[in-house]
Design goal:
- This protein is of the alpha/beta class.
- The chain has helices spanning 7-17, 20-26, 34-41, 82-85, 89-100, 114-120, 135-147, 166-171, 181-187, 191-199, 218-228, 235-245, 257-265, 287-298, 313-321, 331-362; strands at 47-48, 63-65, 68-70, 74-76, 105-106, 126-129, 153-156, 249-254, 270-273, 303-307, 326-329, 376-377.
- It has one domain (7-370): Alpha-Beta Barrel (TIM Barrel).
- The protein contains 16 helices and twelve strands.
- The strands form three sheets. It has an eight-stranded parallel sheet with strand order 4-11-10-9-8-7-6-5. A two-stranded antiparallel ribbon has the order 1-12. Strands 2-3 form a two-stranded antiparallel ribbon.
- Strand 10, helix 15 and strand 11 form a beta-alpha-beta unit.
Length: 388
């Protein structure tokens, strides 16, 4: 593989090796994609404060996320259909995260089942839950995550309705691939992907198919999924899920200070400031610009993480300087996965870690736990002053 110096290098290889419909699935937002774009561009509005003539030896990026030791404050975010980005993708990503010392979060809509990932790894991972109308499925899914040894439940709150992503509709996105002329032509250039998929038995949504009455194949799953997200999900349901789970609960999809306060009230252990990578409410503020007001509202009362838009170690550092205790990366590790499987995910983590470590040092800090707003130069009014 070519010399990799940044996440965009992995993205270039990923685009070349992954079927177009799955590349587009990853690299897209809803509607006009304004929020998708600003998730990354808003990081550029924040500047780091360089300090010199300070001791930069004996640095550490080790810390904790929800009480769990991590090599750096970065978790792999839940990404649906990861096993279509690369054969057995969830297993490759989980193994890379385990070896690197950061959390991996398995999506409800994963290709490899929670049991398959548990069997292929040696350390616990986190599980992300979508709440469905079928309450029995939710209860059984939570129990399966417990049985698999998952140590935290990441409850996604911002996907009761599915935001329209134009590229997916135009590509006829499906799992498995639909044999359209365009797909066949594209697949003819993706021989690595085809060879890998031919060798694996994981080609469907392993957490769902075979675990719900009447869902035995992809066609029946498609009908079920389109009608199954719980439109009535509310804070009382969150309380019930917390009691059902009984362990650390992380609420993902918080973008408003009032919702952050509600998360605190229901007893969540952490929240993830996230707009689903710009894939849900287009026109919503970027995650990084939402972070300051949320920190002001609840930051000293609950652990706050940030997701959406992170493509570098400097992005991680900026989020931490605003008060976040951890971050989630999604696309950044998917680029690595599609480029080179487990080794590509490891490379993505190495790239982010090196930039985080070096940038922290050049800002005059040796311990990631000492990073604060003092290292940041922030424009007046950033993340605040909105009128409603």
């Amino acid at each position: 593989m070519a010399v990799i110096t940044c996440i965009d290098d992995l993205k270039t290889i990923y685009q070349r090796r992954t079927p177009r419909m799955f590349f587009d699935y990853c690299e897209s937002g809803s509607w006009t994609e304004q929020t998708f774009r600003e998730n990354t561009s808003d990081f550029d509005k924040l500047y780091l404060r360089q300090r010199v003539a300070v001791d930069m030896s004996d640095r550490t990026t080790k810390t904790q996320m929800i009480g769990q030791d991590v090599a750096m404050p970065v978790a792999l975010a839940p990404v649906g259909s990861t096993g279509m980005q690369h054969p057995d993708g969830e297993i490759h990503a989980a193994r890379a995260a385990e070896k690197f010392g950061v959390p991996y979060t398995l999506s409800t809509m994963s290709v490899c089942s929670v049991e398959a990932v548990a069997e292929a790894t040696t350390k616990p991972f986190w599980f992300q839950l979508y709440v469905m109308r079928d309450k029995d499925f939710t209860r059984r899914m939570i129990q399966r995550a417990k049985d698999a040894g998952c140590t935290a439940l990441v409850l996604t709150l911002d996907l009761q309705l599915l935001g329209q992503r134009h590229k997916d509709l135009k590509n006829g996105l499906s799992v498995p691939l639909r044999p359209t002329l365009g797909n066949i032509v594209d697949l003819a250039t993706k021989w690595r992907w085809i060879a890998g998929m031919a060798k694996t038995k994981n080609r469907t949504f392993g957490n769902i198919v075979g675990h719900i009455d009447g869902i035995t194949d992809m066609s029946s799953l498609s009908v079920w999924a389109a009608e199954s997200f719980d439109l009535q999900l509310d804070w009382d349901d969150v309380k019930e899920i917390k009691e059902m789970w009984g362990g650390p609960l992380i609420l993902k999809g918080i973008l408003d200070a009032d919702d952050a306060k509600m998360a605190l009230n229901v007893g969540a252990d952490a929240i993830v400031v996230s707009n689903h990578g710009g894939r849900q409410l287009d026109g919503a503020v970027s995650s990084i610009s939402a972070l300051p007001s949320i920190m002001d509202a609840v930051g000293d009362k609950i652990e706050v993480h940030l997701d959406s838009g992170i493509r570098s170690g400097q992005d991680v550092l900026k989020a931490l300087s605003l008060g976040a205790k951890g971050t989630f990366i999604g696309r950044a590790y998917i680029y690595g996965l599609g480029a080179d499987g487990e080794a590509g995910v490891t490379k993505a983590l190495e790239v982010i870690h090196k930039e985080l470590d070096y940038s922290m040092a050049l800002c005059g800090k040796r311990d990631i736990n000492d990073v604060d707003r003092d290292i940041l130069l922030m424009p007046e009014g950033f993340g605040g002053g909105w009128q409603s």
